[in-house]
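Exercise: predict the fold of this chain.
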Amino acid sequence: MTKRAVILLSGGLDSTTALAMAKDRGFECYTMSFNYGQRTVAELKAAKKVSAQFGAKKHIEVNLDMSEIGGSALTDHSIDVPTGEAIASEESIPVTYVPARNTVFLSIALGWAEVLKADHIFVGVNAVDYSGYPDCRPEFIQAFEDMANLATKAGVEGGKVHIDAPLIDMTKAQIIAKGIELGVDYAVTVSCYDADNEGKACGECDSCVLRRQGFEAQGFKDPTIYQ
């Protein structure tokens, strides 16, 4: 019987590695991206390329404008993306956190998984080398899985939905090493919070810093194209 999984795919380093790991585990992969009013639409183009490279059965892009509620530097252009000293001076939860984003994304992925009769949803969250977002913690993933099995037909009828977060305990360097082992072309991915329309990275935001440090720690050449 074919194992199906829905993979939340932003087009960045982490979600691409999660897709590669799902594929390696033998899942028939269905990828889902969100056009949610983010600054960087280049990541959506990257997601399509990555999805095709890994032979996803289907890729869909959901339009969901979270800029209507704002509250994040990623969806509100009046809020600057922190760089340099501004990153270090931020409080524990930075302004690049998008309120309830992973909860919303996982909920929509859960709906698609029900339609597909897929019992696994992969998400590339990480709780080691990350920006301190509350919805990237193991506690959140477990709580969402518990909720998913209360809220779905499959859960009520005795099935089980699994929320797979295979990167949750990995460092960025470990994630990169795993991705390279599985054939990920990181030159295609876009991780920057403030990349230009061509996907060129700013090199100064928190995401760029963590990505660059990961490549340096592994001794791999950073394929990121910078502005």
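Check your answer against the key: The longest strand covers residues 28-35.
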